[in-house]
Amino acid sequence: MFVYVVMYRTSTLMRLRLLEQNFLYEHLRHYYKTLNPNSNFRAIIGLRLQSICKLHTMALIDTAATMIFTSSSSSSSTARLLLFNNTKLHKFPNTISNFRRSTSLHFGTSSPTSRTIVTHCSSSPASAIQVNNETLATVIDGKRVAKDIREEIAVEISRMKEEIGIVPGLAVILVGDRKDSATYVRNKKKACDSVGINSYEVRLAEDSTEEEVLNHISKFNDDPSVHGILVQLPLPSHMNEQNVLNAVCIEKDVDGFHPLNIGRLAMRGREPLFVPCTPKGCIELLHRYDIPIKGKRAVVIGRSNIVGMPAALLLQREDATVSIVHSRTKNPEEITRQADIIISAVGQPNMVRGSWVKPGAVLIDVGINPVEDPECARGYRLVGDICYEEASKVASAITPVPGGVGPMTIAMLLSNTLLSAKRIHNLR
Amino acid sequence: MFVYVVMYRTSTLMRLRLLEQNFLYEHLRHYYKTLNPNSNFRAIIGLRLQSICKLHTMALIDTAATMIFTSSSSSSSTARLLLFNNTKLHKFPNTISNFRRSTSLHFGTSSPTSRTIVTHCSSSPASAIQVNNETLATVIDGKRVAKDIREEIAVEISRMKEEIGIVPGLAVILVGDRKDSATYVRNKKKACDSVGINSYEVRLAEDSTEEEVLNHISKFNDDPSVHGILVQLPLPSHMNEQNVLNAVCIEKDVDGFHPLNIGRLAMRGREPLFVPCTPKGCIELLHRYDIPIKGKRAVVIGRSNIVGMPAALLLQREDATVSIVHSRTKNPEEITRQADIIISAVGQPNMVRGSWVKPGAVLIDVGINPVEDPECARGYRLVGDICYEEASKVASAITPVPGGVGPMTIAMLLSNTLLSAKRIHNLR
C-alpha cells in the first residue's frame, strides 16, 4: 500500500491550499475510505505545493499519511509521499521520499469519466497523468420532489372536495409593478391551478395606500373560502411591512412569518400553525432523501427572518446541533467546514467554496443569484450561494440551482394552504 | 527567545492530551501573548507526551513553534523544543533539540503563587521544576452588579413616583406548597420592597382549579396598578401550563415567555416587549464587564425555553456567531472549546470541565445544582454547570455559583416590571 502525494492543478484540488490540518486529515481519510483497502492501490492526495510549500506543510502531510496508515488494518502498509516541489525537501530527509512519478493512479470508486491532468515539478519536466474523476455528490432533485408533493396535494384536495365539498383557497395581494414579483405571483397562481386550489388575486397600484392593502387583507380574513393569505414582498417603501403582515390573521398566515408562529417554532413543546415555506422546503428535501438530522452538526449561513433564522429553528427542533453563520462571523469557512448539513441563504453567488465543505456533507443551497453570462440567451444565468462545481465533488448530496430549493418553496405554500383548509374544516 | 516544551502533570495541563491541533496553536499563541515579547523569556508549553507521544505530535509542536515565531516581530527569535520523551526524536533530527532541563520557568504574567511540579522523562530521572501558577480568571460578580442595578431601579422608581405619582406593581401567583417556589416568591417580594415596587401575592392551594388561576390572572390583567404578572412555575400537574401562561396579557408578561415575545426576540427588526429575565441577566453581566459580543463565537449549552434558547437569540441579536449544544450533540466538548463566550444552562453539576474551555473564554454559568457535602451545615452546597476550579484557570472571566447569574434574574424581573410601568404610563 502506498500513499502518493501528487501536486496537480485542477481547480478542485487547489482548494486544499486553504485547508486547516484537521480538514486535511479528514479529507485524506475520506479518500482512503473510497479506495478498496484490500487491493494494492495508490491514492492521490493533491496539494498545490507551490503555494503552500512551507516546512510545516510537509510535516503535516507526513503526519497525515502516518495517521491514515496507523488507522489502517494492514500491517504491511507504508506511507510514501510524492512531492512535486522539492525545494524544502532537505528539511525532512528521513521522512519524505524523493520525487517519483506515478503512472497509474486510481481515485474515487465508480466514476466512469477520467481526465488528463498536467503536473509540474522542479525535479522533472511536466508530465501528463491520468486520474479518474472524483465521485460526485447525489443531486437532490427539488424539481422532482416538488412535483411528487404537488401530486400528493392534488390527491388530498380531490378527496377533500369529495368528502366535504370544499377546496382550499389562496389569496395573493400584489402591490406595484415589480417584474420579479409579478412572475412569482403568476407562478403561484399556476401552481394553485395545477393542484386544484382556488386562487384569488388582488393587484394594487404602486401608489396605493397602506389602508387599501389593509382593507383587502381584512376582507380575506373574513372570507371563509380563503384559507391562506399572502402579501407579495417587498411592498412599496411608503408602506410599513410589519403593520401589513401583522394584519393577516394568524390562522391564514400561510407564509408563517407572524412573530407568534416564529415564537412557537423556537419553543420546545409548542407547535407553529405554519412553518415558513422556504425553510420547510429545505427540511422536506432532507426528509425525502432520508438524510438524518438528529445529532448532526448543521450550519445555516444567513440569518434572515424568511429563511436563515427559521431554518435554524427547524433544524434545532429535529435535534441537530446548529450554528448560524452571518455577515459578522469572523471565520465562516472554518465553522461551515464542521457541518454535516449546510443550508446557505445569503444571496452571494458561489460564496461557499469547496474548501468550506466537509467531505460527505449535505448541502442545501437557497441562493438564487443571477450572474452575467453572455453565452446565455438572457445574458445571465442563475447560480446558488454554493460553488456547485467545487462543492459537488466534496459533498455527499447537494441541491442544484435552479431546480433545488426553488421549486420546493411554492410546493410548501400549497402544502400550508391545504393544511390551513384542513384545520379550519377540522379534517383529519 | 526560546520556546521550551515541558511535559508536566498538573491536572490543568493534562487537558492538552485531548486537544486538536488548531487548538494547540491557539493555546500556544495565548501563552505567547501573556509573556513580555521584549524580554529574553522562556515559555512553558505543557504536553503529556506519554499519552500522545507519536510522530505526528512532534511534528505539530514543531509546526506550532515555527508558526508562533514566524508571527513574532523579533527577527532573532528561535524555537527550541524541550521534549521529555525522546523515543521518537530521531525522526526530526534537524528541528527538535535534545532534552535539556529548564530550571527557571515563567508562566503567566502576575500570579503570585508558585508550585512544584514533578516531571518524568525517559532520558533523565524525575526532576522537580518550579512554575508559577496560572493567572486566574476575572470573577464576574453578579451579586455586586445586581445590587448596582437595584439601586439604579430604586432611583428611577422614586423619580417616577415624584413625577406621576405612580409606582410599578408586580403580581405573583403561587399555586401549591413547594418549598423552593415559596422561597423564590419570598425573595421576589423582598426584592420588590427594596426598590419600591408594590408587590401583590396570591397563594392558591395545590388542588385549586385551572379556572381559579385564570380568574386571578384575568383580574390582574385588568388591574391598572399591576404592571407585571408572574405565575410561579412549576404549576401542579393537573393544570395546563401553556393555557395559564398564555392568559397573561402580553403587556404585563414580565417573564417574557409568551411565544409572541420569543418570536419578536428571534426576528431581526422586531423588538420583544420583554426579554426573559435569566438570559437578560447573562447578557447584562457581559455588558457591565465590557465583554465584547459582536463577531465572537458563542456557545449556549442547553436549549430550554426559559434560558438556553432565548440566551442564544439574544447573543445572535448582538451579532455573535452562536451554536447551541444540547443533549443530542455528539461532541459537546469540541464545539464548546471553540467558544469565546459560553453560557451554560443545563443543570448538570460540573459538566463543563477545564478541557472544554478555550483559553481566554468568558464563562457564564446559569446552573445552580445542589451536590452533597457533609461539611456544609445544610448537608449540600451549590455548584454550577461549569467546573469552576478547572475552568477559572483557563477562562479570562467566569461567574461564580452562587453569586453569579442567580442574583441577576431577580434584578432583571424588577427591571422588566419598571420597563412595563414606564411603557404603560408613556414615560421616556
From TrEMBL, chains A, B:
Q: Where is the signal peptide?
A: none
Annotated GO biological processes are: photorespiration; tetrahydrofolate interconversion
Any one GO CC term of the record: cytosol
Q: Which GO terms describe its molecular function?
A: methenyltetrahydrofolate cyclohydrolase activity; methylenetetrahydrofolate dehydrogenase (NADP+) activity
Catalytic activity as recorded in UniProt: (6R)-5,10-methenyltetrahydrofolate + H2O = (6R)-10-formyltetrahydrofolate + H(+); (6R)-5,10-methylene-5,6,7,8-tetrahydrofolate + NADP(+) = (6R)-5,10-methenyltetrahydrofolate + NADPH
- This entry's Enzyme Commission designation comes to 1.5.1.5, 3.5.4.9
Tetrahydrofolate dehydrogenase/cyclohydrolase catalytic domain spans which residues? 140-255
Q: Does the keyword NADP apply?
A: yes
Q: Which SUPFAM superfamilies would you find in this protein's record?
A: Aminoacid dehydrogenase-like, N-terminal domain (SSF53223), NAD(P)-binding Rossmann-fold domains (SSF51735)
Q: Give the record's keywords alphabetically.
A: Hydrolase, Multifunctional enzyme, NADP, One-carbon metabolism, Oxidoreductase, Photorespiration
This protein's pathway: One-carbon metabolism; tetrahydrofolate interconversion
Query: Would the keyword RNA-binding turn up in this protein's UniProt record?
Result: no
Residue stretches making up the Tetrahydrofolate dehydrogenase/cyclohydrolase NAD(P)-binding domain: 276-423
UniProt family annotation: Belongs to the tetrahydrofolate dehydrogenase/cyclohydrolase family.
| Function summary | Catalyzes the oxidation of 5,10-methylenetetrahydrofolate to 5,10-methenyltetrahydrofolate and then the hydrolysis of 5,10-methenyltetrahydrofolate to 10-formyltetrahydrofolate.
Q: Assembly and partners?
A: Homodimer.
Q: Per its UniProt record, what PANTHER family does this chain match?
A: C-1-TETRAHYDROFOLATE SYNTHASE, CYTOPLASMIC, C-1-TETRAHYDROFOLATE SYNTHASE, CYTOPLASMIC-RELATED
Q: What is this protein called?
A: Methenyltetrahydrofolate cyclohydrolase, Methylenetetrahydrofolate dehydrogenase (NADP(+))
Q: Which organism is it from?
A: Helianthus annuus
